[in-house]
Automatic annotation (TrEMBL):
Alphabetical list of Pfam families matching this protein: FMN_red
Protein's UniProt name: NADPH-dependent FMN reductase-like domain-containing protein
InterPro entries, sorted: Arsenate-R_ArsH, Flavoprotein-like_sf, FMN_Rdtase-like_dom
Organism (species): Methylobacterium gnaphalii
GO molecular function terms noted in the UniProt entry: oxidoreductase activity, acting on NAD(P)H, quinone or similar compound as acceptor
Length: 129
């Protein structure tokens, strides 16, 4: 994931390409349970202006939680992962049509204003495009 984050453009114009998208964070580890990775990912999600679901999951000793076919075994950790996935789906459905409004910022509108005014002036014939 870190590599993918490194390749994302910081912004396109005044807009981050990730803003308004939903994010769920989960981690697997080979040792004891820790929430360090999910907490760091939550911070990254905020920085990228993503709508991060409140629920999160951490799967300790992940090598014990999967069967020979690579599927996660039934149990409390599996149920927690499903809970996070369901919450991601619900938040996505709830915010999909409203994401643009939720991440709308005065500073970004102000940054886009000169371009918008030039386009309006060109439309009404005050200036050439």
């Amino acid at each position: 994931m870190k590599s993918q984050i490194d390749w994302l453009p910081l912004s396109e114009g005044s807009v981050r390409p990730t803003q308004g998208r939903t994010l769920a964070v989960m981690q697997v580890s080979g040792g004891s349970q820790s929430f360090n990775a999910v907490n760091a990912l939550r911070v990254l999600g905020r920085w990228m202006r993503m709508i991060t679901v409140p629920n999160q999951s951490s799967v300790p000793m992940a090598y014990k939680e999967f069967d020979e076919a690579g599927r996660m075994k039934p149990g409390p950790l599996y149920e927690r992962v499903v809970d996070v996935c369901e919450e991601l789906m619900k938040f996505t459905l709830l915010t999909r049509e409203r994401a643009e409004y939720l991440v709308d910022r005065y500073s970004e509108r102000k940054e886009r204003e000169p371009d918008r005014l030039k386009a309006v002036a060109a439309d009404i014939g005050f200036v050439k495009r």
